[in-house]
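Structure in, sequence out. Go:
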């Protein structure tokens, strides 16, 4: 958004973008999108893609609240995101560079862990992942969680299996992730009572890219942009001067 770089209301512009895409996601036909991507994927597909694509399908069928993917290099989480799942994908990785590269992908929210990847650590890593998801409001309490992990190690870049877990807590039909985004209404052509009360769908999965410029280079405005929904900061140094660039 160029408005965030030079506009008078950078945080408000970002907040409006976040509200627009959040509302637009309510109108998605996730079953149709999944079938479209799968039908047009060349066959035979890889064994890994065949397994992890089922994670997106399972999230649709179960009305799950979260998909957790353990990955070293991000290949499996990229394939899950390809099928446009209806819920966030918590990407657990030991590699910080992989986390940064995949933070821009649809629905992917990376978390970096310090782990050797031994399969014996799966239960501990999964518990920590679910705690992280609830702390950051990625997953409703008590919802189904689709988990994709490896066989000989937790990372799924070669071989993968899928299992299911339950997020801690009790299900609340009135759980909302969007209270902090100040969304007052839904603009949707597929509106019904189950959709309004569904705790799994409201979390925004589309990422917001903001161009940073002189209007938002101070710490307070950057913080306001993060609160408004900023996911990726694009620095354009054609704005401002060398002194300002150095400060940034």
């Amino acid at each position: 958004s160029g408005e965030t770089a030079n506009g008078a209301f950078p945080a408000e512009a970002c907040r409006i973008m976040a509200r627009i895409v959040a509302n637009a996601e309510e109108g998605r036909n996730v079953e149709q999108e999944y079938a479209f991507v799968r039908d047009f994927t060349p066959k035979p597909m890889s064994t890994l893609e065949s397994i992890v694509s089922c994670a997106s399908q399972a999230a649709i069928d179960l009305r799950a609240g979260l998909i957790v993917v353990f990955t070293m290099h991000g290949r499996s989480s990229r394939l899950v995101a390809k099928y446009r799942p209806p819920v966030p994908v918590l990407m657990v990785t030991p590699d910080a560079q992989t986390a940064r590269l995949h933070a821009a992908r649809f629905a992917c929210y990376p978390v970096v862990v310090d782990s050797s990847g031994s399969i014996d650590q799966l239960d501990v890593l999964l518990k920590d992942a679910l705690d992280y998801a609830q702390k950051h409001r990625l997953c409703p309490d008590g919802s189904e969680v689709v988990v994709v992990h490896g066989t000989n190690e937790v990372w799924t870049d070669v071989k993968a299996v899928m299992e299911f877990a339950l997020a801690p807590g009790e299900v609340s039909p009135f759980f909302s992730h969007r209270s902090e985004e100040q969304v007052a209404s839904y603009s949707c052509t597929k509106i019904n009572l189950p959709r309004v009360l569904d705790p799994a769908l409201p979390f925004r999965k589309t990422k917001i890219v903001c161009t940073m410029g002189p209007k938002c280079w101070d710490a307070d405005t950057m913080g306001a942009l993060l609160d408004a929904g900023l996911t990726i900061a694009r620095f354009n140094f054609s704005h401002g001067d060398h002194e300002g660039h150095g400060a940034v």
